[in-house]
Amino acid sequence: MSLFTSNTLYPVTASIPNGFATQMTDKQKNKIIYLDVSPARTPNLKSPSSNSIVPIHDNLIAPQINKDIIYENIKPVFTILRIMGVLPLTRPRAGLNQFQIASPSMLYSIICYICLVSYVLYLSLHKVQILRTAEGKFEEAVIEYLFTVYLFPMLVIPIIWYETRKIAGILNGWVDFEICYKQLSGRILPVKLYKKALAIAIIIPLLSTSSVIITHVTMVSFNLMQILPYIFLDILTYMLGGYWYLLCEILSVCASILAEDFQQALRHVGPAGKVAEYRALWLRLSKLARDTGIANCYTFTFVNLYLFLIITLSIYGLLSQISEGFGTKDIGLAVTACCSIFLLFFICDEAHYASHNVRTNFQKKLLMVELSWMNTDAQTEVNMFLRATEMNSSQISLGGFFDVNRHLFKSLLATMVTYLVVLLQFQISIPDENQRQMETDENQIPLNETIVAETTKMTTSLATTILTTLAKKKKKN
Fold first, then answer.
1. Rounded distance, CA 263 to CA 77, Å?
2. Would residue 325 count as lying in a domain?
3. How far apart are the first and last CA of the chain?
4. Same domain assignment for residues 139 and 27
5. Per-residue pLDDT for 233 more than 70?
6. Are 20 and 150 found together in one domain?
7. Do 3 and 130 fall within a single domain?
8. Which of 187, 280, 323, 344 could be 39's S-S partner, Cβ–Cβ 3.0 to 4.6 Å?
9. 106 and 7: one domain?
10. pLDDT per position as a tens digit, 2-12
11. CB-based contact 294:363 (threshold 8 Å)
């Protein structure tokens, strides 16, 4: 293939790079725009050149978001948590989330927590009396102690306070992601989860209140004032599950949106620069997935262990009473066990699904890219993108202790079965009251017979002695 040396229409001398004729200076500009654009490292755009025309207001050149989209979508659940005094988050302006110890939000949270602890301590006297009067089988004592375990979520509130600063960092990271996405695609991030968040904020308090009332009516006769702390803590536990669901769902939705946009970009535009930009945006999303687990590390470690304990005790209460038939008390145990199992599975499954979408979906898109029509730069960028998805893990890990996925749910169930077997064996080894009574009666029968025999012998000996003495006196007389 020869070079263009002269032409009346295009007098500029140029070579043919990559098989395409470069004949005008405008062609060089097109090459820079579509093939040699470096990925956007910061949300701030570079200053326009002196030859470009800058409009007065253009969202594509100056993408400023007045309200962060992610927070607005999950705002109902955050509002419930802030009303409960659990999440002392402050927002000086839209798009900026902070945690300040000396803030009205933190003061309100501390007052709510002190009121809750004081109320529980006031009612604990009645609870202690119930435990002390629990006389009977071993399984009945375990069921009674179950109501003390229901109060454990009080300990998670200070843990959430400690992690609120990290949660604020996650929300700020989502704002940066939205700005970068708007720079790249020219449109606002299309996340529509507000209706789901609103449904969660309404349905969970209603279902939690109903579950607590059913449990206490069927198992222990508490009055309304005594079950208020249980209602509050049960709503908190399941609201944390809804909060976790929304965080994982946002990761899944954003990963799907990014994958579709990436596939469209490869069809219409010279992909070298675009692949680099999408790689930088995907790395942000992958970091948000990892930071989500780190920011909620201690909170959901505690929640998972609490659910594991509740499920174990509830199922043990059901199995221990199965020989006597299904009674009224078992209704509350069955409701508690089913709700806790569902919540634990939901937490593990949503995290597994989010990690799968963030990493595996992008790998599928990259592996399906047709590289034959691309130039060398584009093929290099695609290979680098694929290498980035392999090297950067997108697993949601709770501080490195364990990954939250379906394998975690399977491991917890296996451990739960082990503990249930141990508890049931311990129950079998302890005799019932009827068996103790029968053994006592059997032991008492030979004892009574011995006493009667000894008494008879003593009476006979005494009578013989008296008769012998009288006979001797008569002989002497």
1. 33
2. yes
3. 165
4. no
5. yes
6. no
7. no
8. 280
9. no
10. 444 444 444 44
11. no
Q: Domain ends where: 388, 403, 429?
A: 429
Question: What total of structural domains would you count in the chain?
Answer: 2
**Residue 220 falls in which region: left (phi positive, over 0), alpha (psi -120 to 50) or beta:** beta
Side chain identity at 131, as an amino acid letter? L
Task: Count other Cβ atoms within 10 Å, centred on residue 39.
Answer: 17
Measure the CA–CA gap between 280 and 97, rounded to whole angstroms: 24
Residue 252 and residue 172 share a domain = yes
Which of 25, 30, 20, 23 has its CA nearest to residue 7? 23
Give the pLDDT confidence of 306-324 residue by residue, as tens digits.
999 999 888 888 887 766 6
Same domain, 77 and 183: yes
Among 53-62, 350-359, 408-417, where is mean pLDDT lowest? Answer: 53-62
Q: What is the DSSP letter of 302?
A: H
Higher pLDDT pick, 466 / 144:
144
Residue pair 470/462 in contact by the 8 Å Cβ criterion: no
Burial class (CB in 10 A: 0-12, 13-18, 19+), 436: exposed
- Per-residue pLDDT reduced to its tens digit, 360-387: 877 777 777 666 666 677 777 777 777 8
- Give the range of the structural domain holding residue 103, as residue numbers without chain letter: 69-429
Whether 407 maps to a domain, the answer reads: yes
Mean pLDDT of the chain: 75
Of 411, 429, 447, the one marking the end of a domain is: 429
The predicted pLDDT at position 29 comes to 39
